[in-house]
Amino acid sequence: MRAAITVLPGDGIGPEVVAQATRVLTAVGEKWGHTFTTREALIGGAAIDKTGTALPPETLAMARETDAVLLGAVGGPKWDDPRAKVRPEQGLLAIRKGLGLYANLRPVAVNPKLLHASPLRPERLAGVDMLVVRELTGGIYFGDKLRDNDRASDNCTYTVAEVERIVRTAARIARGRRKKLCSVDKANVLETSRLWREVTERVMKQEFPDVALSHMLVDACAMQLIRKPADFDVIVTENMFGDILTDEASMLAGSMGMLPSASLGEGKCGLYEPIHGSAPDIMGKGIANPYATILSVALLLRHSLGLETEANAVEHAVDAAIDRGVFPVDIAPAGVNPASTGAAGDAVVAALRQ
Q1: Contacts of 58 (CB under 8 A, 6+ apart)
Q2: Could you say which of 40, 49, 103, 219 is the most buried, measured as most Cβ atoms within 10 Å of its Cβ?
Q3: Is 247 a catalytic residue?
């Protein structure tokens, strides 16, 4: 296979973890005879510094011409002024919108070797294997915004079509798993959530009668993720709720440094990135955890390139590295010397080549 991939290192630790992920991508190509051509472009704060915009037109044009996009992270204290008209996060929102990526997939599974890294008791983590499907291009993040001297507002809007397509995406995934879909909303308060629930019930009844549907209010879901996380199979929810819940769910796996994500639309080109941020406090120290970005490569191979065998191999290679005790600092047990970013990458590449 030949594939072109746009690489967006971004800010903070983004370039460091992306460097390890591209090493893994190269190793996959060498082992299975694929040719992956990577081209780097600017996004986020790095793009603001050089071009004055968080998503230069040439970056979006390049992304549209390639088979997939691999992203590191955006943001940092240099660009943190909330009054600034141009902010790094605008680049991330814009590329998702520009590529028509409306479904964000965030898998959460717990490696037994990382039970020590989670704040939850080990018995609560047994059997945790869930996927959160977050609507990505609607809701309050994209609504009209108003600010004057004594008030501010952010408008939250959803259309029937937006809810239908994300529910269908989540239901198709649930059908291939344990056939359980939990739709999370705030229908006791919000009109957008009432629409969300009504549309979800109709789509599931008419198109996915074999998938068990349940509804849960977002505050109850936040509690249940800590109390009985293994109860969940697939969760589908709107943009802001999904953003918050998946950060909470990352603690089940021990660290944000362990969780990948895929942002998908109607076509094969997707955007793949770790769920963690740019972590400017550890930038340049060589201690960032690259596993989430490497696991994002696995999702890229699976969803954009259709290479299931290779995707499974990358996921198993990360598990093998952890099994051998290669723990970056955020997941290292007490008394264990943490592995550097490069050493973690080395361990995954070595496991792939074996």
Answers
A1: 41
A2: 103
A3: yes
Spatial distance between the Cα atoms of 341 and 328, rounded to a whole number of angstroms: 7
CB 101 within 8 A of CB 270: yes
Residue 154 designated active-site: no
The active-site residue, picked from 231, 247, 319, 323, is 247
Rounded Cα–Cα distance for residues 153 and 158 (Å): 16
Domain boundaries, the chain: 1-115+255-354, 119-130+137-252
Catalytic residue among 113, 129, 186, 323: 186
Q: Which of 15, 29, 7, 115 is nearest to 341 (CA)?
A: 15
Q: Name residue 307's beta-bridge partners.
A: none
Q: Per CATH, the architecture of 119-130+137-252 is what?
A: 3-Layer(aba) Sandwich (3.40)
Catalytic residue from among 97, 113, 129, 141: 141
Q: Which of 219, 228, 268, 281 is an active site residue?
A: 219
CATH number of 1-115+255-354: 3.40.718.10
Respond yes or no: is residue 233 known to be catalytic: no
Among 11, 67, 243, 330, the active-site one is 243
Active site residue 219: yes
Q: What is the pLDDT of residues 72-119, one digit of tens each?
A: 999 999 998 878 899 999 999 899 989 999 999 999 998 999 999 999
pLDDT in tens, 115-162: 999 999 999 998 999 999 999 999 999 899 999 999 999 999 999 999
pTM of the entire predicted model: 0.91
Task: Give catalytic status of residue 243 as yes or no.
Answer: yes
